[in-house]
Amino acid sequence: MSDYSILDADSFAQVQVQTIGLSSGPSPLRELFIYTSLICNKQCSHCFVSSSPTNRILDEMTARDLRPILDQATGQGLADIYFTGGEPFLSRDMDSMLEAAMEMAPVTVYTNATEPLEKSLRKGLPDINVAHVNKHGRPIHLRISIDHYEAEIHDIYYARGKGAFEKTLQVASLAYSQGFTISVNTQEDLHNRANTRQAERFLRNRFAEMGVDLYDVKVLPDIPTGNQQNRTISSETPVSPAEFAASGARRENLMCGAGRTVVKLQGNVQIFPCTLLVPHDAKTLHEFQKYMMGSSLSQSLGVAATLDHPSCRAYCVKGKMTCAN
Question: How many whole angstroms separate alpha carbon 57 and alpha carbon 264?
């Protein structure tokens, strides 16, 4: 832990270069990501947290778990709250968590937009969205995962299941008709870069045919963690100080520099620096302990987050991506 120096303050204020990699100093709290669990009605071949109908490495988050975390976020400048999983709309306490979260900040939910969301849209979710609009002047944002703009590739290659593409379009259209904002996350085509460049245009056109005006389409790079490790083409290495300085990456665009991730693990709420670095199987339950920041959100903001996982390079530095809207 020797060899401390400071990078260009304009590119990454307060970042310390250590012999083990890069570390962010005390963080603001602009974004808060909440894992409802890793339970999902799908078992996609590329999922970076290996979500499935049986993955119970993370416990199911409840509103009771979440409220003390939200209390600690008061006065911290929180701009947005995100729910992710797993499939958040499988959570038995999702409505209560949404109601608690939107008292603090506008809400985005990552969803596969299939049967769980459809069921929620036919129950109390539209009323919660109306309350969200009244509170924040904008609707709940649904960020939908569609792995390829061709239905067959989405359904078969990515193991979503036959008919999944059309089901997602139908449910997204229903949500849009009820006033929700819709965005899409899609995957970089590892075998055909030309397809990647066409993805946004094709997806926007396809959704427009369903009457949905997408807010945003985000093309995600190859992320070397979870199920994605089994199909990755490139081999990424941890970020070096020189590479980070040359990349032009900014601290405020990195989750570990502008937010925190909340999970429930082995019965307790735990804070992590990033959605990519939470335990998702027995192996990472051990390996990712070094990224745990404790159970106090306020104390975690003063804990350095080291950019020493291959995903830091693949997603945040080389990919220049952000999990925020």
Answer: 9
Q: Decide if 69 contacts 272 (C-beta within 8 A).
A: no
Asked whether residue 9 is assigned to any structural domain, the reply reads no
Does residue 243 form part of some domain?
no
* 3-class DSSP assignment, residue 21: strand
pTM listed for this prediction: 0.85
DSSP assigned state of 52:
B
Residue 319 contacts residue 221 (beta carbons within 8 Å):
yes
38, 84 Cβ separation under 8 angstroms:
no
Q: Three-state SS for 305?
A: strand
235: left (phi over 0), alpha (psi -120 to 50) or beta: beta
Q: For residue 230, give its domain range.
A: 28-238+248-302
| Strands 80-84, 107-111: pairing kind | parallel
Q: What is the pLDDT along the chain (325 residues), one digit of tens a residue?
A: 222 222 232 333 233 333 234 455 555 789 999 999 999 999 887 788 889 999 999 999 999 999 999 999 998 889 999 999 999 999 999 999 999 999 999 999 999 999 999 999 999 999 999 999 999 999 999 999 988 887 778 777 666 778 889 999 999 999 999 999 999 998 776 555 666 678 889 999 999 999 999 999 988 766 544 445 543 434 446 666 677 777 777 666 677 777 899 999 999 999 999 888 899 988 889 888 988 999 999 999 888 777 777 777 766 776 666 667 7
Any bridge partners for residue 218, and if so which?
Answer: 185
First to last CA, the chain: 35
Domain count, the chain: 1
CATH number of the domain bearing residue 282 = 3.20.20.70
∠ CA(178), CA(182), CA(185), 5° rounding?
Answer: 150
Q: Is 147 helix (H, G, I), strand (E, B) or coil?
A: coil
